Every structure is written in structure tokens, then in C-alpha cells.
């Protein structure tokens, strides 16, 4: 699955599943580097999400911005999804060890709000 397809699937699932009053926005600005792909806001709290699809590249400015915003990566793999928290200096502070379904990713995001 391409990153654009993964992003569209995740946004659709978030909008259909999360409680009423949740605001799910896609942020796409080709002129500004480092802005996470999606923000999810509920009851005054916001979670920033960067969507990646295998094979993926972690870009420095994206990674650092996401880390500073305390956001997460939602990584689409052939067999399922992974949620990961960016670590200072690159890589991940936490990465679930088992592959998740899209519904489990949505629940994980809701729990982080």
C-alpha cells in the first residue's frame, strides 16, 4: 500500500470511529517540510500523526517535529500496522512488537488522546 492510500484509510477510520466532537485534519503542504500528516483533537487535546508505508524513510525534520509535538508514527506494513513514538536522535522510543489491525491503531490513537 502506498503512503497516500494508508493515510486515506487511517483518516477515514478515525473519522468513522472516534467519538462525536473529534476533529480529524489532514495537513498537506508541499512547501513546508516537517508538518505531521494528521492531527486528531478531542476535548482540548491534540495528537499529531505521521503516516509511513513500507518501505519508509524517516526524515530528520519530520522526525524532530513529531518528537517535539509528542506525536506518533502510524506505519503501514504488508501484514498490518505499527504505532511508534519517535526518539530523540532518530529511531523509535517505543514500537509495538505485534502488528495491529487498522481498528487497533484507531483504538491506540484514541487511548493516546
Give your account of this protein's structure.
This protein has 113 residues and is an alpha+beta fold. It has a single domain, classed as 3-Layer(aba) Sandwich (Trna Endonuclease, Chain: A, domain 1). Helices cover 31% and strands 31% of the residues. It contains 3 helices and 6 strands. It has helices at residues 3-17, 60-68, 102-112, and strands at 23-26, 38-42, 45-53, 72-77, 80-86, 92-95. Strands 1-2-3-4-5-6 form a 6-stranded mixed beta sheet. A hairpin with a 2-residue loop joins β4 and β5 (80-86). The longest helix is centred in the first third of the chain and has 15 residues, at 3-17. The radius of gyration is 13 Å and the shape is globular.
Q: Name the CATH class.
A: Alpha Beta
CATH level-two architecture: 3-Layer(aba) Sandwich
At CATH level 3, the topology is: Trna Endonuclease, Chain: A, domain 1
Outline, from the CA principal axes?
globular
Low-confidence stretches: none
Q: In total, how many beta strands? A: 6
**Structural class by secondary-structure content:** alpha+beta
Order of helices and strands, N to C?
HEEEHEEEH
* Integer count of domains: 1
Radius of gyration: 13 Å
Q: What is the averaged pLDDT score? A: 91
Euclidean distance between termini CA atoms: 27 Å
Estimate the strand proportion.
25-35%
Spatial strand sequence of the major β-sheet:
1-2-3-4-5-6
Biggest pleated sheet: 6 strands, mixed
The multimeric state of the shown protein is single chain
Helix content: 25-40%
What count of helical segments does DSSP give? 3
Amino acid at each position: 500500500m502506498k503512503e497516500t492510500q494508508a493515510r486515506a484509510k487511517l483518516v477515514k477510520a478515525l473519522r468513522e470511529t472516534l467519538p462525536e466532537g473529534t476533529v480529524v485534519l489532514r495537513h498537506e503542504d508541499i512547501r513546508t517540510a516537517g508538518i505531521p500528516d494528521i492531527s486528531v483533537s478531542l476535548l482540548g487535546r491534540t495528537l499529531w500523526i505521521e503516516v509511513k508505508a513500507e518501505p519508509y524513510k524517516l526524515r530528520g525534520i519530520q522526525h524532530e517535529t513529531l518528537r517535539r509535538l509528542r506525536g506518533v508514527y502510524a506505519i503501514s506494513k504488508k501484514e498490518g500496522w505499527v504505532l511508534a513514538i519517535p526518539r530523540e536522535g532518530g529511531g523509535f522510543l517505543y514500537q509495538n512488537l505485534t502488528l495491529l489491525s487498522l481498528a487497533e491503531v484507531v483504538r491506540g490513537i484514541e487511548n493516546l488522546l
